[in-house]
Predict the 3D structure of the following.
Amino acid sequence: MGEVPVRVLTGTSFLSMETARRRGYHGADTTKTPQTERNVYDMAMMNSVKRAGFRALYGYLDKDPDTNIPKLMDWVDRFAGDGPNSFPDQRAAFRRVIENPDNNWYRLIRSMWTDIDGGVRRTFFENFMLNGNLIGWPIQEQARERYGCNIPWAILLDPTSACNLHCTGCWAAEYGNKLNLSFDEIDSIITQGKQLGVYIYIYTGGEPLVRKDDLIALCNKHSDCEFLCFTNATLIDEDFADQMLRVKNFVPAISVEGFEAATDGRRGTGVFQKVRRAMEILKARQLPFGTSCCYTSANLDSISSEEFVDQLVEWGAKFAWYFHYMPVGNDAAPELMPSPEQREQMYARIRAYRNSKPLFLIDFQNDGEYVGGCIAGGRRYLHINANGDVDPCVFIHYSDSNIRQKSLLDCLRSPLFMAYHDGQPFNENHLKPCPMLENPDKLREMVARTNAASTDLQSPESAEHLCAKCDGYAAAWHPAAQRLWACGHSREGCADACAPRRQAG
Ligand code: SF4
């Protein structure tokens, strides 16, 4: 079939069907049947409408957010009606937020207008909310159905194994700068990802900013995507911040270990002051940033303290991502895994802060309930290391695919990724989401069945060695996880789970 002589309004210009297809307004299948042409056309039209509607709505909000957000909610209520699928609880919760200027979520939303550059804010809303979700999600769904495999919402990738620091316990210092994904390889991953509806890319490493020129060029080239970056922040300077302000679609998640002594103790003398300087540079240019914190049995108390969280807000962070220490690698220190009591403390604290602090907090190991359990194996994300190995998760270093040898879609259809697809969720209790940490037999079994190999290039670790470190942890966490889950998910469950504690206490 030749090119359909129809032109599609994209919000900025009219595109031919062929151009619309090339720019990713459809799933990855390029088979041209009349039906798929029709579907491509329908989706392109739908996306044009979404884009135009979103832009009109954003322009209205942007003019006067204090006045127009409540007005917008009035319209939503009127349109939603009273039906069972009209999300009455969610709408009521959102209304409570926007009607109370002291509410922490209201303060966070409002700070997007007071603290963030207008162009960066607009780009974030367009790339993250419109492209990453409203437009990207239906394309992902269509591809999930068509190919019968997981399709991610975000892709994590390591541009390099190199790092400019030598933090205690970090593998990057050992790898050195031997491994890199080339500009063209990263570009190809993003291009393939967009065909599948993926508009969110997250750099890990190594220290990604060792490749800062390439990362800015990729932001430029894929200006419809949002790029996040885990970084030690020591390479953020005025010039780089100016580049960020120009491209508008690059958001750092800065690694911090706590206050000065804790950060310098692990990362080296003077690093804390460099991190603070980077935050000041970003704040001065009204650029958004967040933090990434790993909690261990040794630092959990301080890194999750109210004092520290208040400090993050004062520094200008808009989000804080907390990661449970994972005993990954032959040199890992399993004693750094939090005790059940500590993990429960973390669970309670993060939930309390979410109701009181103007900061978007996520605790990845305790928040599985919001995303249906484990998100790895391409269900919502995957990880590509600097050697091109495609890992199911940034913490699970086993793979049967390399992006240099297979397309992204073929990696998603590999035996290991299909084992994730078929096995998820790994536990009905999403406080025990992980096939490694809380269900180690599942990872043992998947790795053995699919013949996946270790992708740890410095010191390959067997799945048995890794999972054996988690057996005791999983058994110890089980009672608390069951009680918290029962408590959080039904009145009766809470009564049953809490009764013995009440009697005891
Ligand atoms: S594999 Fe484990 S750590 Fe990775 S996303 Fe799944 S639950 Fe989280």
